[in-house]
Amino acid sequence: MLTYKFVLLCIITLVETHSNHLTDMEEIRVVIVGKTGAGKSSLANVLLNNSAFVTGIGSNSITEKAQSATAEVKFPGFIGNKRLVVVDTPGMFCTRRNNDEIAKVISRCVEMLIPGPHVFIYAISGSERFTDEDLKTFNQLKLRFGDDFTNHAIVVFTKIDPNEVSEFANSQTEELKNILAECNNSRTHINTKTPRDCLTTEVDSILKLIYETVQKNGGNHYNSFMFRQAEKRREDEKKREEEKLRMEREREFLKWKLQEAEAKRKEDEKKREEEEKKRHEESGSNRKTTDRWEEKRDGEKETEQLENAISMFVDRYSGRRDTG
C-alpha cells in the first residue's frame, strides 16, 4: 500500500512540475515551413493577429528570406497571454531559387530563434491535391533538420473550406497519411482566405495543438545540438553520395577502357588475319610462277633433247648416205 501511494505521489509531483514548467513559459517559438504557395505568410499573420508578413496571390513566393515577428497571444486553457514568436520561411520549389539555397535559408531560422524553436508548422495547401513536391518538401525538411524534426512538427492544412474537411480527409494519399503518422497525427486545418475575426475556433485549434506539442516534449525545444547532429548526418550522407558517384564514374571509366582495349584487340586481330591472308596469297602466287617457270624450263629441255636427237639422227642418216 505504501509503495502504491509513493508511486502515485511521484506521478502527481512529476505532472505538477511538468505543468508548472509549461505554465511558467513566457515564450513559444514557432517556424512555419512548406512549399511555395502553401499560405505560410497568411497563416503567420492569422496566428499573430496582425499583418507582419507580406502575402500574395498565386504560387509565386513572396517571402525571399526567413523573417520573424512577435505578438502576445492568448493560448486556450491558460490565464494571460504568452509571447508567440513566429518565423516565416521561403517556400520550397520556388521558381527563382533552387531548393538547396532555400533549405539553407530555412536552416538559419534556428539561429533566429535562439535557443531554438519549440514547434515546426508544416503548412500544406488544402485547396490543391497533395503532390510529389509536397512529399519532397517534407523529406527535404527531415533531411535538413534530422529525425527530431517530426517530434516537434505539426501539420496545418491551409486554404481549406470547413465544409470540405471531411472530404479532404477521406481523399488523402498514402504518402500524406505516412507524413501525418510521422508527425504523430498532430494536424488541424484553417481557411486562411477567411477574415481573422471568423477564425477564432480554427486559430484556437492551432494554438492548442502547438501547446500540446510543447507539452509532449516536456517544454524542450529543438536545439542547435539536434541541428548539428542533423548537419553531420547530412554531411555524411553527402560524402557517401559523392563517394558512390566517384566509384560509379571510376567503374564507367574502367568499363570504357576495357571496351576500348577489346576493340583494339579485335582490330589488331583483324589486321593480323588480313596480313596473313595477303602473305598466303602472295606465297601462292609465287608458287604458281615457279611452277610455270619450271614447266617452261622442262619444256625447253625436252625440246632441246628432241632437237639433239633429231640432229643426231640426221647426222647418222647423212653419214650412211655418204658411205653408200
Automatic annotation (TrEMBL):
Q: Which UniProt keywords apply?
A: GTP-binding, Nucleotide-binding, Signal
Which domain of life, per UniProt? Eukaryota
- For the region Disordered, give the residue spans: 261-324
> Does GTP-binding appear among the keywords?
yes
User: Which PROSITE patterns does its entry note?
Assistant: G_AIG1
Q: Name one Pfam family in it.
A: AIG1
Q: Does the keyword Signal apply?
A: yes
InterPro entries of this UniProt entry?
G_AIG1 (IPR006703), GIMA/IAN/Toc (IPR045058), P-loop_NTPase (IPR027417)
Q: Which residues form the signal peptide?
A: 1-17
- AIG1-type G domain residues are 25-231
GO function term, MF aspect, one: GTP binding
Extent of Basic and acidic residues compositional bias: 261-304
PANTHER family reported for this sequence: GTPASE IMAP FAMILY MEMBER 2-LIKE-RELATED, GTPASE, IMAP FAMILY MEMBER-RELATED
Annotated family: Belongs to the TRAFAC class TrmE-Era-EngA-EngB-Septin-like GTPase superfamily. AIG1/Toc34/Toc159-like paraseptin GTPase family. IAN subfamily.
Supply the name of the protein. AIG1-type G domain-containing protein
User: What is the source species?
Assistant: Patella caerulea
